[in-house]
Design brief:
It is a single chain. With 230 residues, the protein is of the alpha/beta class. It has a single domain, classed as P-loop containing nucleotide triphosphate hydrolases (Rossmann fold), CATH 3.40.50. Helices cover 34% and strands 27% of the residues. The protein contains 8 helices and 10 strands. The chain has a 6-stranded mixed beta sheet, with helices on both faces. A 4-stranded antiparallel beta sheet has the order 2-1-4-5, covered by helices on one side. Strand 1 and strand 2 form a beta hairpin. The two termini are 32 Å apart.
Length: 230
């Protein structure tokens, strides 16, 4: 589904990612892990076209998308939920979802209802401005909004960060259901136990490089835990 080959990414003269290569097989859930500041969010920005790759290639479904703008990647079937549950605070919950539906060429008429089925606690809040939602509700809305476009690959940047435990469970159930239904997912996550429960495969970044990668069954190994320890 997605292949990243030898990607370097820099902010000006400061290089953040070094020769990063990874694969997300079709219908898989791959978890990217690592300490704070190792380049996880930078990687997602590069995959979405928000940051240019100074070298290397990104291929999506057999097509080189390295030079594509973000909106073209979205139309090709890549959904993105950034860190910090970013929503349109002045718009209502319904308007947030409607905007995503209107800009998507692929979304069917039932896309909003299907997204709300995953997060039913949003239904009574459809007329509320998104800026007045709790952090957990905003995160659910951000994920639902990305799903309205009916992507084939979903990029999630730390969806459980700063969220109350009850909503973490609801988000986990939604991710499990999406994966079971065949959606490919790249999940950036700090919590090892969460990753162990969800992932098929993992990638650990350290100082901007791929330090370890493999099947999720290896996530409990001491060498992996050491790379994730502060």
């Amino acid at each position: 589904m997605l292949t990243v080959s030898g990607v370097d990414v820099a902010y000006g003269r400061s290089q953040v990612l070094f020769d990063v290569s990874l694969e997300i097989p079709d219908r898989s859930l791959v978890c990217v892990m690592g300490r704070n500041g190792v380049g996880k969010t930078t990687l997602l920005h590069a995959l979405m076209g928000l940051l240019p790759c100074s070298s290397g290639r990104v291929n999506f479904d057999g097509t080189d998308i390295t030079g594509w703008r973000p909106e073209r990647r979205v139309k090709a079937g890549i959904g993105y939920v950034p860190q910090g549950h970013e929503v349109f605070g002045q718009l209502t919950v319904w308007e947030n979802l409607q905007v995503a539906w209107e800009v998507s060429a692929a979304a069917k008429a039932s896309a909003i209802d299907e997204a709300l089925d995953l997060f039913p606690r949003l239904r009574p809040l459809l007329k509320r401005r998104a800026g007045f939602l709790s952090g957990g509700q905003q995160q659910q809305l951000a994920i639902a909004r990305a799903l309205v476009g009916q992507p084939r690959l979903l990029l999630l940047d730390e969806p459980t960060e700063g969220i109350q435990p009850s909503i973490i469970l609801e988000i986990e159930e939604a991710i499990v259901g999406l994966h079971r239904d065949g959606l490919s997912i790249l999940l950036v996550e700090q919590y090892l136990d969460f990753a162990i429960r969800l992932a098929d495969r993992y990638v650990v970044l350290d100082a901007g490089e791929v330090a370890r990668a493999g099947p999720a069954s290896e996530l409990a190994e001491a060498s992996v835990r050491q790379l994730l320890s502060v």
